[in-house]
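2024-03-11 09:14:02 DEBUG pipeline.ingest accepted 1 chain
2024-03-11 09:14:02 DEBUG pipeline.ingest length=325
2024-03-11 09:14:03 DEBUG pipeline.predict start
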Amino acid sequence: MRRERFPEMNSRFFRRLASAHWMVWMLLLAAGPGLAAAGAPPGAPVEALPKGRIAFRSYGTQQGLNNLAPSLLLQDRLGYIWVGTEDGLYRYDGQRFQTFDRRMGLPSTYITALHEDLRGTLWAGTYQGLARYDGSRFAAVPEEAGLPNVPIEGITSDRSNQVWAATPRGLFLSRNGQTWGLAQGWPGGAATAVLARPGAMKVWAAEWRESKGQKEAVVHEWDAGHWRVYGRAGGLWTDRIDDFAEDANGWVWARTRRELDRIPGRPALLARIRALSESGTTITSPRRVSSKSISTSGICTRSGFRNRSKVRPYSTGSISVISTR
């Protein structure tokens, strides 16, 4: 069992480690522009900067952030910044980072997903299951509740505060935050990403399945009690979809290792997007992309931040609705 798991963990580690720099920059941006200049200690005065310039501060072990390869960021409604890493979860209160690990109720210190639902409950996905925060510590969701203790690929909640969890064993749903079951109508393949649009009952989910002897990714949309299945008219997605994000304009983006697909707000076509002018550029190497990495200004990539003016339509073919059930 251990011998099978470690290669996958190593692969995830190096993909995230390679792009840890842009996650740290996102943390600095999320903390606000009123920070001291780079390298300044906490409490240092903010120097006057020219208009349009942003000051940065470095965070590390001196502030309690003991893992310098963050892969997930979330700012909750109280203002705390949560940082998920390969070896622990950290909460920043404006002065120090507090560490959350197994001693604080997490089933694993390998953090794979973070989400705050409509009631303000924080959910942490790990490599060995899901946990919820009660305000002081985490409580792991037991398998007896219906959710397997497997890697959590994504977490989201819809308008009714139903919580959705993407796992290698499928897409799971909890209507009360206590009991879980496979989402109605889910075809049975591994769920690799999930996103609920704010204020709506519409949910996007990605499936990674084997079809005709080869692996392919499929996008599913849950709307008004039915699933709509999307596929690429010009060929298969041969890379798994690792995440969804919605930008300020309401566009939903689906990310694979090598491309972005933009999903319109209607069941029409997905415009395939190539993020850079260079060919073969990796969009981003960590498996999880927060909504902060895709905005109205640009897209965070492995090689840096790209303005949307450099994001141009790519290629022929289209993505069309395959079926509705």
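2024-03-11 09:14:41 DEBUG pipeline.report Residues 1-40, 266-297, 302-324 have pLDDT under 50 and may be disordered.
2024-03-11 09:14:41 DEBUG pipeline.predict end
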